[in-house]
Amino acid sequence: MTERRHPPRARILGTGRCLPDTVVTNADLEARVDTSDEWIRTRTGIRERRIAPPSIDTCDLCEEAARQALEAADLRPDDLDLILVGTVTPALGFPATACLLQERLGTRGQMAFDLSAGCTGFLYALSVADSFIRSGNARYVLAVGAETLSRIVDWDDRSTCVLFGDGAGAAVFGPTQDPERGVLATRMAADGSYWPLLHMPGGGSRHPASAESLAQGLHYVKMQGNEVFKVAVRTLHQVAEEVLEAAGVSGDQVDWFVPHQANRRIIDAVRLRLKVPAERVYVNVHRYGNTSAASVPIALDEMVRGGKIRPGHRVLLDAFGAGFTFGAALIRW
After folding, report:
1. Where does CATH 3.40.47.10 sit in the chain?
2. Domain 182-332 has CATH 3.30.70.980
3. Cα separation of 95 and 207, whole Å?
4. Would you please indicate which residues are annotated as catalytic (active-site) residues?
5. What's the whole-model pTM score?
6. Among 19, 64, 93, 153, which has the highest number of CB atoms less than 10 A from its own CB?
C-alpha cells in the first residue's frame, strides 16, 4: 500500500532577535515631557524601551536577528528561497529592506520583498511563508519583523513617545509532512476604513518630504489612542477565535498565547475574552515597549531560547496594527 503523504506545511526551524543596547526608561522620559513613570505603567504596562543609535538602521537589526535564526535552523543564506521583511520603518524609501538584507547575508537569486502591515507585519510574513511552502514554491523562508520606530516618533508628544521601541525578530520556516506540527491555521485581514486612527501622513506621494511637511510634523506617528484601543481588543479577539475554530482548538487548550506587545491592558482584555489562563500568556512589553512588527518574533525567540516553548506545544500568535490590519496564527511546535 502506498503511504499517504500530507501536503507540506510550514514549521519554524530557528529564531533570532536583535535589540539595541540603549535603554530609555520612563524616568528618562519624565525629564523630557509632562508624564510620569506611574502614568505610563498604569496605562500601558511599559517600564522601558530600547532605542537604536543613529549609526544603526533597520537593516542592521534585521541582519543580526536573521543570522541568529539561520544558525539555529542550521541553514546557510544560500539555502533560502524567499526573504521577507515586515516593517513600516525601512532602511531606505526603496529598494526593499529585504533586498538590502539579502546583500548583507551574501546571497542572491531568491525572492525578496517587504510587507507593510504595521504591527501585524510579521504575522503577514508568516502567512506568506506558509503559503509558499504549502504550494511547493519555496522550501526555506526567512521572515523578519523589524522596526526603528524611534525615527518616526515625536519625542515631545507624550501621547506617543512613551509607547514605542526599536528591535528585530526573525524566524526561518521549512516544510514538514507531520500533520500534527507546524502552522495549523492562519487568519489575516484588514479594514482600511480605520486608517486615520493610526498613521504617518508624511513621506509618501500625498505629503512628500519638504520644508513645509517637516515644519508641520507630518513625518511623525499620529494616533488616536482611545479609539485604537477599542478596535484592537475587538479585532484581536475576533481573529484569534477564527483561527482557534479553524484548528478545532479552544482557548484553554492553548499552551502559549503570544500577542503583539502594544499595551498590557489590551493583552489582558483579549486574554480574558479568549479564556486563556494568565500563566500561559507571554508578556515582555514592560521591557521593550511596542516594537511593532518586531514584537511577536522577539517574544518567540525569547521563549524558544528560554526553554518555555517545547515540542508539542500549541502556540497562538495574535497581532493588530496600522491599516488597520490584524492577524492570528496557531502553531504546533
Report:
1. 9-176, 182-332
2. no
3. 20
4. 119, 260, 290
5. 0.96
6. 19
Which residue is it, cell 487568519? 187
Backbone angles phi, psi at 297, to 5 degrees: -70, -30
Q: What is residue 76's three-state secondary structure?
A: coil
Q: What is the pLDDT along the chain (333 residues), one digit of tens a residue?
A: 444 566 789 999 999 999 999 999 999 999 999 999 999 999 999 999 999 999 999 999 999 999 999 999 999 999 999 999 999 999 999 999 999 999 999 999 999 999 999 999 999 999 999 999 999 999 999 999 999 999 999 999 999 999 999 999 999 999 999 988 999 999 999 999 999 999 999 999 999 999 999 999 999 999 999 999 999 999 999 999 999 999 999 999 999 999 999 999 999 999 999 999 999 999 999 999 999 999 999 999 999 999 999 999 999 999 999 999 999 999 999
The CATH number that domain 9-176 falls under is: 3.40.47.10
Which contacts (CB < 8 Å, 24+ apart) does range 93-101 have?
93/203, 97/58, 97/59, 97/62, 97/146, 98/144, 100/59, 101/59, 101/62, 101/63, 101/66, 101/144
Core vs surface per residue 139-163: b (16+ CB within 10 A) or e: ebbbbbbbbbbbebbeeeebebbbb
Which helix (H) or strand (E) covers residue 100, if one does? helix 97-104
